[in-house]
Design a protein that fits this description.
alpha+beta; 3-stranded antiparallel beta sheet; two-stranded antiparallel sheet; about 55% helix
């Protein structure tokens, strides 16, 4: 169901903030857009949102690799960073 963007948002203060930073291109990345009588209506699109999020994740992973961060399925680590868990394991050993 298509709705006016300001009607979709529960927090009316967000409408003014979104008007300043939310471009048509960004909105079109996560929603279907239709104009009726020169007024924009939107409908959330799950597949578009998942595609957009996948691109964001890929860009983040690539940036981490370029900056020398270890990226794996188990998480990522910055060289020289020690977690509290690693320190505790070393003290026991």
């Amino acid at each position: 169901m298509y709705e006016i963007l300001s009607d979709v948002l529960d927090d009316k203060e967000l409408v003014a903030k979104f008007d300043k930073c939310l471009t048509y291109e960004i909105l079109a990345s996560i929603a279907d857009i239709k104009y009726i009588n020169e007024e924009m209506f939107v409908r959330f699109n799950c597949q578009k949102t998942m595609d957009w999020l996948s691109k964001k994740i890929d860009n983040t992973v690539n940036a981490m690799i370029v900056n020398g961060m270890n990226v794996s399925c188990d998480g990522s680590k910055v060289s020289g960073y020690k977690s509290g868990k690693e320190d505790a394991n070393r003290e026991k050993g």
